[in-house]
Design goal:
Elements: H1 15-47, H2 64-93, E1 100-107, E2 110-115, E3 120-122, E4 124-128, E5 133-139, E6 144-148, E7 153-157, E8 163-167, E9 173-179, E10 191-197, H3 199-207, H4 214-224, H5 227-230, E11 249-251, E12 257-259, H6 262-270, H7 293-304, H8 309-318
Parallel strand pairs: 1-5, 4-10
Antiparallel strand pairs: 1-2, 2-3, 5-8, 6-7, 6-9, 9-10, 11-12
Helix pairs in contact: 1-2, 4-7
Bound molecules: heme C (HEC) and copper (II) ion.
Heme C (HEC) binds next to α5 and α6.
Length: about 325
Amino acid sequence: MLSGIPLFPEQASTLAPEVDNLYFFVTAVTAFFALLVVVFVVIFAIKYRDPTGERVGAPITGSIPLELGWSIIPFFISMVMFGWATVVFFNIVRAPDQTLEIYSTGKQWMWRFQHIEGQSEINELHVPIGRPVKVIFTSEDVLHALYIPVFRVKADAIPGRYSSIWFTPTRVGEYHLFCAEYCGTKHSGMIGRVVVMEPNDYQAWLSGGGGLSMQARGEQLFQQLGCASCHLPDGMGRGPSLAGKYGAQETLANGATANVDDTYIRESVLTPQMRLVAGYQPVMPTFQGQVNEEGLMSLIEYIKSLPSTGQRAAAQAAAPGPAAPGGPR
Ligand code: HEC
Ligand SMILES: [Cu+2]
């Protein structure tokens, strides 16, 4: 539909038509009223022109119906825009439950993408068609923004925080990927490409080299950094058991609660004293400087993979067979 208009990037995700339709609606409404005003200005200028300069206009005393009309009609039109935009906004920010997760870090001046299975790539992102993909990312230095125009997604990469974008590619091909936040002298060169592949090609690409999976690398770090010595799976160590913690609610020493998500785990490792878990001593050392962004992401991926003993038993009961992969060993 848009291929004839070079102003618009292709639509290559399920979100793209949603964003464009809203955009066209808002543009059409604004253009309609702008034209209406211009047309009447011209018509009245001609109709009521006064070459003598002596006519005096009738005094205007106001009209309740008119005032109500031009307040209420625009109100409803803007509520339609608001409601519609809210739906689109939620679709953009809320990823579906089952996504293919890919981690990424931005730094001056490149994007690095890390697939869970182990493959990593720089300024290139390979994704399968027809499957929701979630890219979770942060920045190692300054603000960046990950922007993929054909998918109509963009989000800031903020040092010390995780952002994410999600999309379901609908078209095989190669597309641009940009940094959309001025980040230094070579910002304009911080570009790359997204390669959307057929699922089989994607699987083949994934298995071509890559090394350890993020989970395995996270487990290695968990041992090397000594996390394992305090965080025993049975909870008998100096720190709480992390099994099944991901996604749970934690009660903190100050009485507040916190969701155990990516950011929470990241902060637990870098600034453990900031949010103490209720019932534990503040003995966890900071690992600032000992683990980089990718290491943190691997640790998170490992902790995510630890099912609680209860969940594990339930999973085994539901599907008899080998133990759930990635369980506490
Ligand atoms: C010296 C023992 C010790 C070591 C080593 C240690 N921790 Fe901890 N950890 C604790 C204690 C005690 C707590 C609870 C108090 C707190 O929040 O700091 C904790 C809390 C946590 C939490 C929050 C858990 C929850 O239930 O909310 C996470 C996540 C965590 N640690 C991860 C790690 C990781 C990853 C490492 C290794 C990089 C690590 N810890 C190393 C002792 C340790
Ligand atoms: Cu930039």
